[in-house]
Amino acid sequence: MQIPTFSNIQEAYQIIQPEVHQTPVLTNQQLDERTRGHIYLKCENFQKVGAFKIRGATYAISQLSDEEARQGVATHSSGNHAQAVALAAKKRGIPAYIVMPKNAPQVKVNAVKDYGANITFCESTQDARESTLRDVVDETGASFIHPYNNPHIITGQGTAALELLEQQPHLDMVLAPIGGGGLMSGTAITTSGLSREIAIVGSEPEVANDAFLSFQTGTLHPVQSTDTVADGLRTSLSELTFACIQKHVDEIVTVTEQQIIDAMRFIWERMKIIIEPSSAVPIAAALHHIDCTDKRIGIIISGGNIDLKHLPWQS
């Protein structure tokens, strides 16, 4: 698989623009004071399905031929990607087959059902997800839409940074969270395509630091622990996303669990917007690990989907 180019992302944006929201960029005086910089939050928590994932899913599904589309699309996911694929498939009028673990949050299961997708439940292991998906694809002939190891997905995700840099063109740095690396890859390709002067920094939880280790050693490391509150960042990089990050990212920093929770709560309380723990990771990085003094920094807020019955600061 080839690494997408900046021109690919520009072309993708023209295709998906009618189907996605142009999300706002928000600022906060207290956040600026605490970081001693100028922070611009690209709020993909206000995006359709509550996360940036709809961008990649919409573009990937748009690239299917009519013959492929008639067979539908399939994926495995317990979260935002499942909802994004389900909605994008509904918009194109084709079937969606989603494999979800039995312990997936009911609110997310309900959302996938509401978008009209066919759900197959499996055990909550990666092997079970993949084997069940293979069975579904064999039975239906559907096209597998991988959540991040897919050039079209990366290309679509990069449109969030494209919007950010159109809304705030004079940035010194762009920050994004890293899970499987789709958003980080697309963000990095876009940012480096627009300017060689903007620093590109990734962020991830200290306890799930596979991207940090991979970046430092030059060798792909699988994630060793998923024991992080940032549930959207529990996946490992793929060969494709690692290649994108190696080529375009300048630095990766890690943050503690308490720093993630504190950053999330700070944004909820001071900005009155709901962000999920994964979105708080780059904010924690700006608050604790990056010199933001007098710098203009754009941060991709990846999503706002969270179980309100289980907030991380509640005992």
UniProtKB/TrEMBL annotation:
Residues 17-303 form the Tryptophan synthase beta chain-like PALP domain. The keyword Membrane does not apply. InterPro entries: ACCD_DCysDesulf, Ser/Thr_deHydtase_PyrdxlP-BS, TrpB-like_PALP, TrpB-like_PALP_sf. Its cofactor is pyridoxal 5'-phosphate; Mg(2+); Mn(2+); Ca(2+). It holds the Pfam family PALP. It comes from the Bacteria. The keyword Oxidoreductase does not apply. PROSITE patterns: DEHYDRATASE_SER_THR (PS00165). SUPFAM superfamilies: Tryptophan synthase beta subunit-like PLP-dependent enzymes. Keywords: Magnesium, Pyridoxal phosphate. Coiled coil: none annotated. Belongs to the ACC deaminase/D-cysteine desulfhydrase family. This is Pyridoxal-phosphate dependent enzyme.
